[in-house]
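Pipeline run #58 for the internal structure catalog. This entry was flagged by the ingest filter as a single-chain record with no existing model, so it goes straight to prediction. Upstream metadata was stripped on purpose; only the residue string is passed forward. Reviewer on rotation: M.T. Logging verbosity set to normal.
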Amino acid sequence: MEQQVLRALGDYTTLRFTKTWAELQEVVMRRSPSAIVADPLADRGGHPEPTLDRFSHLWRIPVVLYTHLSPEGAHAVFALGQSGIRHVIFWRVDDDANRFIEVVPWVRDEPPLHAA
């Protein structure tokens, strides 16, 4: 999944990858991200709901969920339903580069141009 995000957005923006919700919080506190792409199933030992809710609902950072289309993924998406998260991308279903470019909020309200 990390490689798919890198292929889709790596030429357009600086990406930071974390393994835990605590690491994600540290990155967000040090940097002011324009968006967060997060797999709510990534840190099985953590609880994504309070972290992603805080980023999306309270701090108004756009969050895009990128997860597996599975019962666990559906449960995680459902649990985050009240967090103000507007976009979900499912791995190997609708995760082509254009989909990421479409849902990540760009500075000038336009996606970057594609190189031929």
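catalog note: Helices lie at 2-9, 21-30, 48-58, 71-79, 97-103.
catalog note: The longest helix spans residues 48-58.
status: ready for reviewer M.T.
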